[in-house]
TrEMBL record:
Plastocyanin-like domain location: 39-152, 165-306, 385-525
Keywords per UniProt: Signal
Annotated signal sequence range: 1-28
Phylogenetic lineage: Eukaryota, Viridiplantae, Streptophyta, Embryophyta, Tracheophyta
GO MF, one annotated term: oxidoreductase activity
Taxonomic source organism: Panicum miliaceum
Name of this protein: L-ascorbate oxidase
Assigned protein family: Belongs to the multicopper oxidase family.
InterPro entries documented for this protein: Cu-oxidase-like_N, Cu-oxidase_2nd, Cu-oxidase_C, Cu-oxidase_fam, Cupredoxin
Length: 557
């Protein structure tokens, strides 16, 4: 819904709440949570330079969306910026509902001085996720926040309730304005190195006084860590305390213990820390990985009654790629635990399903018209004026995009990069192997919207079918984001059973901005509401579909 003058206030808002509540009660729907966000710019001095930051209701980070599996989430976004705006719900699968995914390929943007209401559910999901503004380089200016999805009351959780639940939204931070970063990329320049790291929107001084986290001796606490940055992989650790990994991007894990954990861009995980040391102050420590000049930030964890400063010795970050790869191999899916449903996670035997198709996506970069571009299989994606999903739904793809400009194998080395919307079609409900090959000298991470996948294997060099002999076909973690090490490959497996238009992208936002992404179109041949929702009547329209009649409804489920 759009209110150009932003007049929704008081009685009208209350009436809407009452109406939706009555409808929900009559249909015995899942509970509703309502949010009203006013998105503005504000000036903050985070790393020594006053800069323009995207705020939500005056906050950075934005409000936490704290909900339970299957809840209805309604977020009324008032765009008070001077640019179009979309929010993406990173890791939320939007089952049957790519209409709410919040990317330029699926939705028309919310224009300045207008508002629009998202409505989505974390359907059959639990865990730790986050949201962020997805247009251009806005993500570098803040506007992000945590999403916590809890299990329903009758679904057992494989650990005791923690004494508290702590957010750790940590990432690299640039002091240049996001419009300047975008302009630099448009002019063929890079964005350079970040100015430093921040935790929950704060620098190291602000994260220490007052202490960011308060604990009591003998109690156990959950830390939800998300790498919300745009460039740097990170390592997280706590002075003199052990980290027990319990959840990763919506999956319960085998509860192994670690001195520290690598968290790559776009990844989220949860670990438990028991306050079992001598009462005092201790540091949560985060450092960059795989960058020559290491940046580190700390935040104080204070035991109740402490007047003892943190120990002077800060635990060092691990070094090298091998350590990180071996840690990834230690992560295991908890086969006996229930997630969002009562059946055990391990009841889904992904390793016994026949692969129907292998898509090998190889990264590349080069000059196009004198400017740097990144590509997947030789095509560097650009967003057309008409969102891909709308063009497809209205049967108006001519002049907007062509399907399958790339093949399932990379082109020959040296093939010129083509700049165009990059859309691949996938047959509904087929089990597909996607192999990411990173040809660069630096690490990359990839995310697939709309799905969780099984990261079955990774290794150096280029992938071949013989690499399947190294796969974990039993208990690799089901997740949505995975790292690909330099000049290496990572293979993931998933069933494309969620109809819609879904983004596959690099989470290194410089590469994403310059084209290292594509969309995968998954169409149900039944055109049934069982498989996908109709386009909401309130959806924004733009480009070629502004005046087109609404297509016929999908068939009833």
């Amino acid at each position: 819904m759009v209110w150009s003058a932003m007049t929704m206030r008081g009685a009208s808002a209350a009436a809407l709440l009452v109406l939706v509540a009555l409808v929900a009660g009559a249909r015995a729907e899942d509970p509703y949570h309502f949010f009203e966000w006013k998105v503005t710019y504000g000036t903050k001095n985070i790393l020594g330079t006053p800069q323009k930051v995207i705020l939500i209701n005056g906050q950075f980070p934005g409000p936490t969306i704290n909900c339970t599996s299957n809840n209805n989430i309604l977020v009324n976004v008032f765009n008070m910026l001077d640019q179009p705006l979309l929010f993406h719900w990173h890791g939320i699968q939007q089952r049957k509902n790519s209409w709410q995914d919040g990317l330029p390929g699926t939705m028309c943007p919310i224009q300045p001085n207008t508002n629009w209401t998202y409505h989505w559910q974390p359907k059959d999901q639990i865990g730790s996720f986050y949201y962020f503004p997805s247009i251009g380089m806005q993500r570098a200016a803040g506007g992000y926040g945590l999403i916590t999805v809890h299990s329903r009351d009758l679904i057992p959780v494989p650990f005791d309730p923690p004494a508290d639940d702590f957010p750790v939204l940590v990432g690299d931070w640039y002091t240049k304005d996001h419009t300047v970063l975008a302009k630099n990329l448009d002019n063929g320049k890079g964005i350079g190195r970040p100015a430093g790291l921040i935790i929950n929107g704060k620098n190291e001084k602000e994260a220490s006084n007052p202490p960011m986290y308060n604990v009591e001796a003998g109690k156990t606490y959950r830390f939800r860590v998300c790498n919300v940055g745009i460039k740097a992989a990170l390592n997280v650790r706590v002075q003199k305390h052990i980290l027990k990994l319990v959840e990763m991007e919506g999956s319960h894990t085998v509860q192994n213990t670690y001195d520290s954990l690598d968290v790559h861009i776009g990844q989220c995980l949860s670990f438990l820390v028991t306050a079992d040391q001598t009462p005092g102050d201790y540091l949560l420590v985060v450092s960059t990985r795989f960058i020559k000049e290491v940046s580190t930030i700390t935040a104080v964890i204070r035991y109740k009654g402490s007047n003892t400063p943190p120990p002077p010795q800060i635990p060092e970050s691990p070094s090298g790629w091998a350590w990180s790869i071996n840690q990834w191999r230690s992560f295991r899916w908890n086969l006996t635990a229930s997630a969002a449903r009562p059946n055990p996670q391990g009841s889904y035997h992904y390793g016994q399903i026949n692969i129907t198709r292998t898509i090998k996506l190889s990264t590349s970069h080069g000059k196009v018209d004198g400017k740097e571009r990144y590509a997947l299989n030789g095509v560097s994606h650009v967003d057309p004026d008409t969102p891909l999903k709308l063009a497809e739904y209205f049967n108006a793809t001519n002049g907007v995009f062509q399907y399958n400009l790339i093949g399932d194998v990379p082109p020959a080395a040296g093939t010129p990069i083509k700049v165009a919307p990059n859309v691949v079609s996938a047959e509904f409900r087929t089990f597909i192997e996607v192999v990411f090959e990173n040809t660069e000298k630096s690490i990359d991470t990839f995310h697939i919207n709309g799905y969780a996948f099984f990261a079955a294997g990774m290794g150096p060099g280029t992938w071949s079918p013989q690499c399947r002999k190294t796969y974990n076909l039993l208990d690799t973690v089901s997740r949505h984001t995975i790292q690909v090490y330099p000049r290496s490959w990572t293979a993931v497996m998933l069933t494309f059973d969620n109809a819609g238009m879904w983004n596959i992208r690099s989470n290194l936002w410089e590469r994403h901005y310059l084209g290292e992404q594509l969309y995968i179109s998954v169409v149900s041949p039944a055109r049934s509401l069982r498989d996908e929702y109709n386009m909401p009547e309130t959806s924004l329209r733009c480009g070629k579909v502004v005046s087109l009649p609404m297509p016929p409804s999908y068939a009833p489920a």
